[in-house]
Amino acid sequence: MKLILYHANAMMKEIAENWAKENQIEVTVLSELLTAETVKLAKGYDGIINSQAAGTIDKEIYSTLREYGIRQIALVSAGYELYDLKLATENNLVITNVPSYSPESIAEYTVLTGLNLVRNNNTIIANVAKNDFRWQPSICGRVMGDMKVAIIGTGRIGQITAKLFHGFGCELVGFDLYQNEGIKSILTYKDSIEEAVKDVDIVSIHMPATAENRHCFNYEMFKKFKPGAILLNMARGSIVDTEGLLKALDEGILSGAGIDTYEYEMPYIQKDYQDKAIEDEVFARLVHHPHVMYSPHIAYFTDEAIKNLVEGALNAAVEVITTGTSKSRVN
User: Fold this and answer.
1) Can you give the C-alpha Rg of the chain in angstroms?
2) H or E segment at 320?
3) Given 7, 71, 206, 265, which residue is catalytic?
């Protein structure tokens, strides 16, 4: 059996190579994105794994893989919104994901980001870099335990995030189309997102991206927030209208935002732009906004998560090749 892994970084490469030795399966690891051009490199392989988590998947890829006799695409992610599941099915391709790889990693990073914003750490770090060591009103923080937090999306990650905030003593409300009975002892569900966000100090997003919730969090939604609230988005960039977010921050509707995903991040993620200009003006404003704590899609990025993602995707690929389906199939 021969597998090919696309868009892998050095950590993924090492994990994949170790897995290949342990399982005695040949794995070719590429740094290239999976495109209509690079898919040609998959010819002669039995299975394909792709770690791309943003951007687009060219439509031609599906028919090309079918032509090559490949029957699956294993994703190194939980999200699969980049993929046309209908087109994949039409081309006899099974799409698999890794539904749970380390929800703790993302939940912990969410709370870390929230704490940094609550304690005005961006301002403190900027002041210290200028040798300004004064105690000023702009760096006076708040007590996390005094805050009310809304968890929007109470799946695996949302539940763990809620429990961590609860550990600080926060009051919790939430919204999800499918309420989780196991979390109702610490969280009160609301009937809508609007109802959940209206009087809380922190709003933490943990929804999957869908066509229906694109730009769900826009300027009009932010106007429904409690004045001075904080937004945390460690989910998917498309859920937040970034221009609306920046406007809400500039007008003081929000006091801060922790953003790990940006809708049009693909040209920049895993790239070094130290000596280059950011051409996307909205992204540049987001990254450099004094009230934004931005990170490049790394909330999940722990050693445990990377190992579980890569091995989970490789195992799913083998499962489909040998049985025709997988327990982590999404189409």
Assistant:
1) 21
2) helix 303-323
3) 265
The model's pTM is 0.90
Q: Where are the domains of the chain?
A: 2-101+303-323, 103-294
* Euclidean distance between CA atoms 242 and 264, whole angstroms: 10
For residue 30, give every residue at least 6 positions away whose Cβ sits within 8 Å of its Cβ, in sequence order, or none.
Answer: 4, 5, 6, 7, 8, 38, 41
| Tokens 């790394």, residue located | 298
Residue 134 among the catalytic residues: no
* CATH architecture under which domain 103-294 falls: 3-Layer(aba) Sandwich (3.40)
User: In the CATH hierarchy, which fold is given to the domain comprising 2-101+303-323?
Assistant: Rossmann fold (3.40.50)
Catalytic position from the list 7, 206, 297, 311: 297
Q: How far apart are CA 165 and CA 144, in angstroms?
A: 8
Q: Which two tokens stand for residue 285?
A: 């404003």
Number of Cβ within 10 Å of residue 37's Cβ equals 11
Q: What is the pLDDT of residues 247-295, one digit of tens each?
A: 999 999 999 999 999 999 989 998 999 999 999 999 999 999 999 999 9
Answer yes or no: same fold for 2-101+303-323 and 103-294.
yes
Average pLDDT score, the chain: 96
Our answer to whether residue 171 is catalytic in this structure is no
The pLDDT assigned to 41 comes to 98
Given 7, 71, 156, 236, which residue is catalytic? 236
Is 104 annotated in the active site? no
